[in-house]
Amino acid sequence: MTGVTEPTAERPRKRRRIWIAVVVVGLVLVLGGVVLLGAMKSKLNDSKNALYDGKLVAADYWSDKPQILSSGFGFDGIVAASAVDRQSTIDAGGAFDDKMTCNKDGGATDADRSSLVPSSTLTTTAQIEDGANPQFVDGTPVVFSWPVRTDTLRPSQFRWTLNTGEVVGVDAVTMTPNFEYNERNTVVMFTDLGNRGLPGEKDARYPVRLDVVPASDGTELMLAGPNGDVSATGLSNTTDNTPYASGPTLVGAKLNRIDSSPLGEGPVAQNGAGSMPNDERTMYGDKGNFRLRMLTTGGFSPDGIRGVLPTDFQKFFRIHAKGPNGSDVVIDKAGVPVAVAGGTLTVVGLSDVGKPASTDGQVFYDDCYADDHDNYFDVIISGDDAAARSITTLEIPALSGGYSAFYNPGGPGQTPTPGVRYTAPGPTTLQPVIVALDNPMRVNR
After folding, report:
1. Residue 193 CB-density burial (10 A; 0-12 exposed, 13-18 middle, 19+ buried)
2. Helix (H, G, I), strand (E, B) or coil at 78
3. In this structure, are residues 375 and 141 in contact, taking their beta carbons and an 8 Å threshold?
4. Domain map of the chain by residue range?
5. Which residues lie closer than 8 Å to 173 by C-beta, 6 or more apart?
6. CA gap 88, 119 in Å, rounded
């Protein structure tokens, strides 16, 4: 049987049609990629912008007047790293945890084990000063008594004076990890602020004073108070502490009733999705009646790398209350009812840490537990109203009290590198508790 031969003139036209189809498919793929990339960038921008929207929902204020509660040096040289593998971490003076064990699929990653903060974190969450390119910089949290109006926040609003007399500006600022709408008291700043020298040591360099000034564009930082917004310009704070001599501590503790539905809690846009929701209702349902929130000078960690677990109350904390006969009563265990003046109180556990353990094997209370690393912890308490009013003090006994200590993110981990100076453990702390059952001391905007 004789085959049909395609006309010679038809062959080039067919090839052209094929090439056109290939080009069209290629253009569709390229345009689809551009659209997808644009959508991803838009989502990242929206997520970052949400940190600086000025919104507050039941945000705590901690005193009757605006002030800087703490501005101590945070940690040296571990922020905006180009890599977080073991050698890169050690070369930067960070901690790398070789001992970490985790139940999640694949076990602990380098990111889990390293104390370094990758540079991508800054670009996606921080406001970076024009012309600045922060790399392996220092991090320092600044805690205000009133929530920050984040839509007025600029890097150039902060001026540091060092023990050497140098005056230093700020390369970048972020509300991460203190971005939840009911938080926002703490701004984290990044720049070269010092080294790991201790006070009195030759060549030691660390900040001793912070002043709030108008930004380079004239914007003033605003704080949200009970009677409206006020300018933070002119506020200052002095310190003689470096974290390599003494670690993080408390600057506030406040007792509120638990709302039927938590206000201002949870992720903001995409921020916090890995560790939230972690509010009291998500963690414990209707088991608690009161929330004892603490405000810290820096991120709290058992060693500088691992997260704090919801079950860690009796490892780190004690609560003092007035007893039935007026004596001091100590609550030092979760799940145990304690008789105090006015009734009984029971610590249920900690919230505002990370997600609750899951039955699907996604969240474990182990070395890889992802807490939110912010400047807040909540102790959830059940009991009588009159009994709650007997609470007087929140205590961190620390190492000197026979308990575990807290470190900030510059701590040693479980396997510190010999010869490297890491941030020190925090001290014993007795923080008076504000009983805010009649006036919750919160603001909205």
Report:
1. buried
2. strand
3. yes
4. 59-443
5. 126, 127, 153, 154, 155, 158, 187, 188, 189, 190
6. 13
DSSP state, residue 325: T
Nearest partner of 303 among 253, 247, 240, 258, judged by Cα: 247
Three-state SS at 283: helix
**Cα distance between residue 133 and residue 119, in whole Å:** 10
184: left (phi over 0), alpha (psi -120 to 50) or beta: left
Q: Which residues contact 347 (CB under 8 A, 6 or more apart)?
A: 313, 319, 331, 333, 334, 335, 336, 379, 380, 381
Taking alpha carbons only, the member of 229, 299, 289, 292 closest to residue 259 is 289
Whether the CB-CB separation of 170 and 153 falls below 8 Å is answered with no
Tell how strand 343-351 and strand 442-443 pair up.
unpaired
Q: Is the pTM of this model over 0.85?
A: yes
Contacts of 398 (CB under 8 A, 6+ apart): 404, 405, 406, 425, 426, 427, 428, 429
Rounded to whole angstroms, how far apart are CA atoms 222 and 240?
Answer: 27
- Provide the residue-wise pLDDT of the chain in tens; the chain has 445 residues: 444 455 555 555 656 666 565 555 555 455 555 444 344 345 557 899 999 999 999 999 999 999 999 999 999 999 999 999 999 999 999 999 999 999 999 999 999 999 999 999 999 999 999 999 999 999 999 999 999 999 999 999 999 999 999 999 999 999 999 999 999 999 999 999 999 999 999 999 999 999 999 999 999 999 999 999 999 999 999 999 899 999 999 999 999 999 999 999 999 999 999 999 999 999 999 999 999 999 999 999 999 999 999 999 999 999 999 999 999 999 999 999 999 999 999 999 999 999 999 978 789 999 999 999 999 999 999 999 999 999 999 999 999 999 999 999 999 999 999 999 999 999 999 999 999 999 999 999 9
Q: Which residue has the tokens 């922060």?
A: 134
Q: Within 13 Å and on the Cβ side, how many CA atoms surround 74?
A: 25
CA distance 183 to 185: 6
